[in-house]
Amino acid sequence: MRVLVVEDERKLAAVLKRGLEENGYAVDVAHDGKFGLELAVAEPYDLVLLDVLLPRIDGLTFCRRLRAYKRTFPVLMLTARDSVDDRVAGLDSGADDYLTKPFALRELLARIRALLRRDCLSKRDPVLRLADLEIDTISHRVTRAGIPIELTTKEYALLEYFAHNPNRVLTRTQIAEHIWDYDFVTMSNVVDVYVRYLRRKLRDDHEPRLLQTIRGSGYQLRVTADVSAA
Questions:
Q1: For residue 177, what is the domain's CATH number?
Q2: Is 173 within the bounds of a domain?
Q3: 82-123 residue pLDDT tens
Q4: Element (DSSP H or E) covering residue 129
Q5: Model pTM score
Q6: Residue 226 counted as domain residue
Q7: Among 202, 204, 158, which Cα is nearest to 180's?
Q8: pLDDT at residue 228, rounded to an integer
Q9: What is the mean pLDDT of residues 124-131?
């Protein structure tokens, strides 16, 4: 899952980035509303954490403009303002939830999970089924041929990204930016390393492999039309 944090307090933004990454999210950070909106419109985020008091474009304006661009992913507003009128203004601007500072990271993570779960259930079956592979996107449980598979947070994030894009060739840059972050160094071989980890855990070492290497392009989770889930 890829999250955009739009927060001008740099120390808080750094804490949020670290905490989210430790829980398996890929995180980009913007320190002003204008740059944050540019990223949110251009990139396929799963959720935005949005401060209200931002330079250049404030959070309420950001949210209204984001919705005007037909971007429907969840927005969780973060603010020190805790009056009823402030919460109503945030929700009316298009935010999905509102969290008052200061807050515990554990509560923030719970709010994020709830928003992503709600978004997922409104769009599709939360269990992805591809060939003999099943991925529960809520509990993060993975099985192949009914056998449970234990994955690290990054391995799971990589597998879910492939599963949401079956039969699509994903470049190393696309994978890196989605699973790691916007500033990821694309010269690194970490994508190849994690694909190897994933193949080993999926016992995907015999042809035809689910995870295919597309020489000169990237990787593909290849499944036939009659066994892939909608």
A1: 1.10.10.10
A2: yes
A3: 777 777 887 888 899 989 888 999 999 999 988 987 766 555
A4: strand 127-130
A5: 0.66
A6: no
A7: 158
A8: 42
A9: 78
Say how many C-beta atoms besides its own lie within 10 A of residue 133's C-beta.
23
Torsion (CA) 105, 107, 109, 112 in degrees, nearest 10: -140
Asked if the model's pLDDT at residue 217 lies above 70, the reply is yes
Q: How far is 89 from 42, CA to CA, in rounded Å?
A: 26
151-169 pLDDT, tens digit per residue, is 998 899 899 889 888 898 9
How far apart, in whole angstroms, are the C-alpha atoms of residue 67 and residue 93?
A: 9
- What is the domain range of residue 65? 2-122
- Asked if the model's pLDDT at residue 226 lies above 50, the reply is no
Q: What is the number of structural domains in the chain?
A: 2
All residues at 6 or more sequence positions from 164 whose CB lies less than 8 Å from its CB, including other chains = 128
Other CB atoms within 10 Å distance of the CB of residue 176: 20
Using an 8 Å Cβ cutoff, are 217 and 169 in contact? yes
Q: Is 125 left (phi over 0), alpha (psi -120 to 50) or beta?
A: beta
CA distances (Å), origin 176, targets 119, 218, 219: 24, 11, 12
Residue 158 domain-assigned (yes or no): yes
Rounded CA gap, 151 and 168, in Å? 22
